[in-house]
Specification:
Layout lengths: L7 H6 L20 H10 L2 H6 L1 H14 L6 E2 L6 H8 L1 E4 L3 E4 L6 H5 L10 H14 L5 E6 L1 H10 L7 H9 L1 H25 L3 E6 L7 H18 L3 E2 L2 E2 L2 E5 L6 H4 L6 E3 L6 H8 L4 E6 L8 H15 L5 E5 L9 H15 L5
Helix pairs in contact: 2-4, 4-7, 7-10, 8-10, 9-10, 10-11, 13-14, 14-15
Length: about 350
Amino acid sequence: MSELKNDTFLKALMRQPTDYTPVWMMRQAGRYLPEYRESRKTAGSFLQLCKSPDFATEVTIQPLDRYPLLDSSILFSDILTVPDAMGLGLYFEEGEGPKFERTLREEADILKLEVPDMAKLQYVFDAVAQIRKTLDGRVPLIGFSGSPWTLATYMVEGKGGTDFLTIKKMAYARPDLLHHILETTAQTVIQYLNAQIAAGAQAVMIFDSWGGALSHDAYIEFSLNYMQKIVAGLTKTNDGRKVPSVVFTKGGALWLEAQAEIGADALGLDWTVDIGQARKRVGDKVALQGNLDPAILLSTPEAIEKQVENVLRSYGKGHGHIFNLGHGITQWTPPENAAAMLEAVRKYSKQYHQ
């Protein structure tokens, strides 16, 4: 593997000194980019983009070519590759998002759930290896997975964006069944992320998109505990270098102190929490990633610059901050507004690292 030319992102994850605050964007390869839309049209479908290492490499690199100020790449894939490999039949309906042909609601179906053969996900690992080779040390590559709770919501509900009543009913009435789903999924994710690391991912992130839908006790029991298991099972070094991990719960600011104790190197923050207050709450246990509201990128360059300044000022002096959005960039974002954000981060962050 080529020597890393820009390791600012990895240093920040480990709270080491950097010259500026590194930045990348959740969902940075996506529909807001015209070149991505062209690639998707050529591929024929979103799933074909994900399942072709050539296309996955192409779209992973696109934002880096457009925005030289990005400090990391992230594997182009989808969190739902895991339940798809577990036999639930992932498909996408135009305008409606991901759905599954089979759901886990009956006890017999749940008890049959097993950790799948990782060969079913080989296309992901091939994409990681190809992206690393294509990057040629330009910036680090992030691998990722959904959290067991978030994946389970899709596996039980059959789709995303629901009121979660079916899975919550299971959590309260038959927690044993939900724990079977979560334990099997956690063991799958450990193998999945470790295979990504072996293929060349230099950091990994766990996306807990729906953890914020849980009550306090339920979050600890059904979400955080399983992310802690995953973090404990991750490969910690590869290529003679530490492989840092990031945990992100959307709507998770209530549990920052508990999240900081699970062994991850960094916590992702959504836009609902003040990053300076979050820093005070977690101390020097973890780095923090975030947390600009993605909707700001729909406004003006002047407004974007002001909000970027606010986030940087709130975090304050010192290291251990990775600038990012508080969730994925929206498809309606003008590409030039993303550039304005990246330029503002580089322009204003240097003073906090002197």
